[in-house]
Design goal:
CATH class of the largest domain: Alpha Beta
Strand order of the largest sheet: 10-12-11-13-14-19-18-17-15-16
CATH superfamily of the largest domain: Class I glutamine amidotransferase (GATase) domain
Oligomer: single chain
Shape: globular
CATH architecture of the largest domain: 3-Layer(aba) Sandwich
Strand content: 25-35%
Radius of gyration: 20 Å
Length: about 375
């Protein structure tokens, strides 16, 4: 376990707000859109979720690092957040099955962070002012220099990032002799989504984000899945066109998070950038078919237009709503075997209330 050599660090927000603290991880400078996650556990899964690519993550749990890190708890092959912001950075850990300390992990992955800051104040500021770009630095505390670097960072609005985190090569996952073949369009998929399909007798072939549908069809899948991922869905014409063609084919189609937004765009329902998004593992969602509430894991900064969905009730049915703010959490396309949810039924981290959605997709392939 490495000793931490901490130096002064600074967090500068786009609106000029400044927080001073100490370095965490690699000494350096990093930028991105600042957001926060309210989960009380699962920090490594959050760090490695490709949906967070390009973002600086504020962790609201007071202690980060206290149970170390373990390779099998990663949701992708590397850390995907651009930087970490936390209160207590705890390098010493006491979990026997952990592989390494958080400092060793961050140094190995090259992650820059800041700790010993008032994360409650930061979160309250984001909730009030909205998501914005920010910069963390432990190389310099010169605000003039940091302001210049921050001014060069592009807005997340209009930014296509899915193709940057997608697999570069086609690969497979699961038992080749499984009953169902699922074609996965990888926009930044989490490992536990693949695990959830494999547990349900599915064999998957995972395709790069921009793979033409003609190539995917050649494999002869029983159903299609559109994954989660980072960035704005609006510029992803390649994915929207594939979704439209799948709807014409009328095979089962399931979308999660970014995949949900792509499905909406495929039926001409627009998306929008949210004020500060949903990121946590305790979001209450109502299933409108059953009337039951699900506690869900969420991670998104864009949403599907409620007004457009309501105006197109003849072709799209709203299936789930968020009980905190009435945003759209799920939908299905009428007359098609296509549905999607805005949240993460595979969780990891989070509750398992919504894992029935994987079973529903399998039933569509069966029938």
């Amino acid at each position: 376990m490495s000793d931490i050599q901490q130096v002064p660090a600074v967090l500068l927000l786009e609106d000029g707000t400044v927080f001073h603290g100490l370095s965490a991880g690699k000494i350096g400078t990093t930028t991105g859109e600042i957001c926060f996650n309210t989960g009380m556990t699962g920090y490594q899964e959050i760090f490695t979720d490709p949906s967070y690519y390009g973002q600086l993550m504020v962790m609201t749990n007071a202690h980060i690092g206290n149970y170390g890190t373990k390779r099998t708890e990663s949701e992708s092959y590397s850390i995907k957040i651009n930087g970490l912001i936390c209160k207590n950075y705890t390098n010493e850990y006491h979990r026997p099955i952990a592989d390494q300390s958080i400092q060793d992990y961050f140094e190995e992955e090259g992650l820059v962070g800041i700790c010993s800051v008032d994360t409650r104040a930061i979160v309250r500021h984001i909730r009030s002012k909205g998501a914005m770009n920010a910069i963390i630095s432990s190389e310099t505390t010169d605000l003039k220099v940091l302001e210049q670097k921050l001014a060069e960072v592009p807005s997340m609005d209009g930014l296509e990032l899915a193709s940057k985190v997608s697999t570069k090569e086609i690969y497979t996952f699961g038992d080749p002799h499984a009953k169902y073949k699922v074609a996965v369009m990888d926009f930044g998929i989490k490992q536990n989504i693949l695990n959830s399909f494999a547990e349900r007798n599915c064999y998957m072939r995972i395709f790069p984000a921009k793979t033409p549908l003609e190539e995917i069809r050649e494999w002869g899948p029983d159903g299609y899945f559109m994954s989660n991922g980072p960035g704005d869905p609006a510029p992803m014409d390649y994915a929207v066109q594939n979704a439209k063609a799948i709807l014409e084919e009328d095979k089962p189609l399931f979308g999660i998070c970014l995949g949900h937004q792509i499905l909406a765009l495929a039926v001409d329902i627009p998306t929008y950038k949210m004020h500060h998004g949903h990121r946590g593992i305790n979001h209450p969602v109502k299933n409108l078919a059953t009337g039951k509430c699900e506690i869900t894991s969420q991670n998104h900064g864009f949403g599907v237009s409620p007004e457009a969905l309501q105006a197109n009730a003849d072709k799209v049915e709203i299936t789930h709503i968020n009980l905190n703010d009435d945003t759209i959490e799920g939908m299905r396309i009428r007359g098609k075997k296509a549905f999607s949810v805005q949240y993460h039924p595979e969780a990891s981290p989070g509750p398992h209330d919504a894992r029935y959605l994987f079973d529903h997709f399998v039933n569509l392939m069966e029938n």
